[in-house]
Amino acid sequence: MGSDTPQKRSYFEASANFADGSDSPRAFLDRCIAEIEAREGDVQAFEYTNFDAARAAADAATERWQSGNQISPIDGMPVGVKDVMETADMPTGQGSPLFVGTETGRDCAAVVAMREAGAIMVGKTVTTEFAATHPGKTHNPWDLERTPGGSSSGSAAAVGCGMLAAGTGSQVIGSIIRPSGYCGAFGYKPSVGGINRGGSFDGFSQSCTGMIAASLAECWSLTREITSRTGGDAGYVGVTGPMEIPAARKPGRVAMLQTAGWANASDGAKAEWQRARDTMSAAGIDVQDRDSDKKIAAVEDAIANAMELSMTINAWEGRFPLDTYNRDMDASKLSESAHNRLKQAVGMTQDEFAGLLAERDRVRGVYATLNGEFDVCATLSAPGAAPKGLDWTGDPLFTVPTSLVGMPTVTLPVLADEGLPLGLQVIGHTNQDADLFANAGGILELF
Amino acid sequence: MGSDTPQKRSYFEASANFADGSDSPRAFLDRCIAEIEAREGDVQAFEYTNFDAARAAADAATERWQSGNQISPIDGMPVGVKDVMETADMPTGQGSPLFVGTETGRDCAAVVAMREAGAIMVGKTVTTEFAATHPGKTHNPWDLERTPGGSSSGSAAAVGCGMLAAGTGSQVIGSIIRPSGYCGAFGYKPSVGGINRGGSFDGFSQSCTGMIAASLAECWSLTREITSRTGGDAGYVGVTGPMEIPAARKPGRVAMLQTAGWANASDGAKAEWQRARDTMSAAGIDVQDRDSDKKIAAVEDAIANAMELSMTINAWEGRFPLDTYNRDMDASKLSESAHNRLKQAVGMTQDEFAGLLAERDRVRGVYATLNGEFDVCATLSAPGAAPKGLDWTGDPLFTVPTSLVGMPTVTLPVLADEGLPLGLQVIGHTNQDADLFANAGGILELF
User: Fold this and answer.
1) DSSP string, B244-266
2) What's the maximum distance between 2 C-alpha atoms anywhere in chain A?
3) Cystine design at B269: which of A107, B171, B265, B328 (Cβ 3.0–4.6 Å)?
4) Is B184 left (phi over 0), alpha (psi -120 to 50) or beta?
5) Do the Cβ atoms of B260 and B303 come closer than 8 Å?
């Protein structure tokens, strides 16, 4: 199986057969482990795995499903945990040589909640250094010479080729949507604050924990099983809505965004953007863009500088802990990009940061003018197929606007470039994540 | 000296004599260490100390001051770090038997910044368990049979008796202002988000890092030396204003608050509240209260339930990490109060939490109506002197409103009850911390 075309592996498809015993969580896990054993040597999606504990947990879930006592729809689901999120039974390495093998002894909030719902933490998935720029070891399962994208590299690669049904991610620039798109997975970045980040080494104000999975329904259920138990970030309610994915609903109006990424988009990607647009139009959806609608044009203008603005906000907010790592640990184990970010932060002033936050608020206000006008926005997940080479995780210009503005976004694996996966990103309105899923489901049915 | 009446030890008073060599950071530190050695057996303010490193740092600061090259006004200042804040050279125990001796290898953001400004981290000061309810070992230096207050017990006790010039604290209910008041120290809780909490085990949405010091000026300078380097919490600018304390300015109008604490206030404390009021009135300040002003009455009504509201918000937000400690560590090492908070959290729903946040927002809106009407509010730091016994850190009803509402507050050690210290709390408007200090300085001059 390892040499075949990558295939996602949906737990929700399998679980329909758990009650009659023709399939089971344990059998599903065994298929995942077989896929991992077949591909991991090439793909390298994991920093650590814990198969023995996973098998024991899957056996317990199997008993529950067979007696009709499953805890939740995700009971028994094999999940990978991005290696910036703490786990009681596995180390948390943060993608840095400074923290190889570091045991914190506790689960992060999201993992506590997923385990309470019965999900199985199979392993820790590779992240770029501190979920930032410097790449990890993972290869794209569709083409081993290409990047899987970052920073949630291991979760996207593992889900993209059916090693797991789902993996957690985090995104402050493009770290969920971009790798999900490159690896052919579904990805979901919630509204800012949407999933409790307690116990995740991820302190940026525009960052979010999110989900990468084999289906939209799995993204949604994992999220709600977490947020119903432990909410969002401190001070945030977190993602709300029905416990199961809202029914698909064809949107009435869609705003097609080009973003600053358009300038870098391949011809193939641009053609796919147009195909997505035509497909929606043909289905009777009113599709507008910057040329036909002034509010969309204003949003395009407002997000044009999203990358620089986000990177500068992140530099200031990331001074800690890089400053203490640089001074109190082995500074030679920090990447060049980490050193550069720290240097940038130390050169900034608090007043400059105040100006950046004010500009971010302004951009958020401009985006909010689309609320009530368009059900969702749509754009690409990236300017093309995953680039060749492992030393760069790809261009985030299509993904950074949602991180800056804080609205929820999903990527649907329905486009292609160079014969490789490309995502159609569907973007909702802040704190209306359930609406986004309904609309994204409606769009998905058109492809 | 250990048996004398406790005296605060101001670094800023001493530093006037550093240039001519008649005093020095090293000599100041030696006086602090002598005080610690005399009193620590009784007071027990520290979990760890690092005198050798402190002396070396003080010698370096001495050289800088003598050559006029001091980094900042706090260069060489001996500071204690509340033991929920990470330090690279000392363990971080969080007041819990689960974390005795835990080394994280890094400094929290505030400590990084203070060290960069030249301040000296002398030791880790005792906190209640997880900066919450269960008391630590510290005694009140004014009466060893009484509580120092909590949760920033060690910092308040150490500063109150001159073991240190300053200590850090954190407050989510009353954990800076209450112990500062009980121990005769100045205390400052900033506007919510005011000081970067990166690397502090303190994830509550209404919690703040703050300062306990021998003077208002030291509270202010420490804060600005931190925030000018590393700002506030992620997404917050942090405390802004001049680098040195704003000039004292007698306020024009002051709102006297009773809070829900009035019902528990001792006769002595009530008399002190009245004395404070009369002193301000006699100085020509227009002082109003709930009986004379409808907006104040509305605020008193809005904050009447601050304690229950705050405790319930904190319970939900504190589910993590208590849940994983309870499940993955030795649950018998969690206090009864921690178990009770976790039980409360597990029994709550996300919808209930949403209702609590909405109510908090409503209360914040009511308090905001005082902005432009009153320069500051004033009230007690506690309903009386520190209570006898070490099994309860005292009544937080006078302090919890500022935590809930998020406005900045200071306590001035100018009142007394039972011959023991009691604080006059002066409360400002959110994100106008510099204004608060100007007004508090003006009030201080009246006593």
Assistant:
1) SPPPP---SEEEE--TGGGGG--
2) 64
3) B265
4) left
5) yes
Q: ipTM, 2 decimals? A: 0.96
User: Could you tell me if residue A104 is inside a domain?
Assistant: yes
Bridge partners for B415 per DSSP? B422
Contacts B198 to A, Cβ<8 Å:
203, 320-321
Predicted TM-score of the model (pTM): 0.97
Of A228, A229, A328, the CB nearest to B106: A328
Set of chain A residues whose Cβ sits within 8 Å of the Cβ of B353? 231, 237
Please, what is the average pLDDT of chain A? 97
**H or E element, residue A422:** strand A420-427
Instruction: Kindly write down the DSSP assignment for every residue of B7-75, as one continuous string.
Output: ----HHHHHTTTTTTSS-HHHHHHHHHHHHHHHHHHH--EEEE-HHHHHHHHHHHHHHHHTT--SSTTT
Residue range B164-178: average pLDDT? 98
A360/A350 Cα distance (integer angstroms) = 15
Total domains in chain B come to: 2
DSSP secondary structure of A199-249: TBS---TT-EEEEEESSHHHHHHHHHHHHHHH-SSTT-----S-SSPPPP-
CATH number of the domain where residue A148 is located: 3.90.1300.10
Residues on chain B touching A237 (C-beta within 8 angstroms) = 350, 353-354, 357
> Do residue B217 and residue B280 come from a single domain?
no
Q: Which two tokens stand for residue B300?
A: 């008193």
Pair (A184, A261) in one structural domain: no
pLDDT in tens, A20-64: 999 999 999 999 999 999 999 999 999 999 999 999 999 999 999
Half-sphere exposure of B219 (CA within 13 A, CB side): 34
